[in-house]
Amino acid sequence: MHTVSLGKSGPMVSAIGLGCMGMSGMYGPSDCAESIATIHAALDAGVTLLDTGDFYGMGHNEMLIGEALKGRNRDQVQVSVKFGALRDAAGAWIGYDARPKAVRNFLSYTLQRLGVDYIDIYRPARLDPDVPIEDTIGAIADMVKAGYVRHIGLSEVGPDTIRRAATVHAIVDLQIEYSLISRGIEKEILPTCRELGIGVTAYSVLSRGLISGHWRKDAAKSGDYRAVSPRFQEGNVDRNLALVEALRRVADAKGVTVAQIAIAWVVAQGADIVPLVGARSRDRLAEALGSQAVRLEAHDLAAIERAVPRDAAAGARYPEAHLMHLDSERHG
């Protein structure tokens, strides 16, 4: 496993990270034993970056990772945690809270659930419209000084917020959606990060499985977020799956899978971009990590671009109600 620096001021991390959200029910039922086995397989393969959120499964995901990390060398793993999203007992999203006292509260529960003494990268999940980003980052900076946090990151924010945050404390990375069919960051957000020496951890690099080469229209399960995702809806999904089939022809010609060529494309966009793969099983993890062996030449990239042109996807990446909360969409 190759390693890269997460931004100019961040830690050395594996060139591919493991996004653990799907292990806590966002895409239908999950198997805890297989999830832990998958985390162990990732760590054994050299993956060092594990990404979670304290609201994934209302703490379930952190406890799952905590269980998986027992007996492991803590200094060889970087745990990235998002906080601030609020959920009710039914699992509904009810807003964000990034006040300084909320930062301290969320962090204390995260440390307990993970069973660790510090968090490697801590970040607000979204911009709280009622709290200046300077206040939130300042509160995390206090936790850095206290030794509870090593580095500060951001998530789904636009250029102005990135710049304001960076005046308070060094920001190591921005976590944001980026894939062949979600390329909005290329206009302003990615150039801003590069200007400031901030890395990118790219989530949903397979667009929630849509461009994995495995997803089928009859694959939806109870409790699966994709049931409300615009790109999976009638009127959009067939057009998007046609893009997948075009990409499959490129992948077949190169002797790799659709998922591998899609992940390799993200990697090829720059050494400052670390894809987070959301594998929930060991076989999907093995496939994703196989993308490291894929080398895309100029003619490969051109073929991929022809198969999946920029802005070719049908439907937004989130429902409209969710897009309203994304600073990255308002100011991207």
From TrEMBL:
- Oxidoreductase keyword on record: yes
Classify the source by domain of life.
Bacteria
Q: Which UniProt keywords apply?
A: Oxidoreductase
InterPro entries given in the database record = Aldo-Keto_reductase, NAD(P)_OxRdtase_dom_sf, NADP_OxRdtase_dom
Q: Where is the NADP-dependent oxidoreductase domain?
A: 15-307
Q: Which Pfam families match?
A: Aldo_ket_red
The keyword Oxidoreductase is assigned to this record:
yes
Q: Which residues cross the membrane?
A: none
This chain belongs to which protein, by name? Aldo/keto reductase
Species in which this protein is naturally found: Sinorhizobium psoraleae
Question: Taxonomically, what lineage is the organism?
Answer: Bacteria, Pseudomonadati, Pseudomonadota, Alphaproteobacteria, Hyphomicrobiales
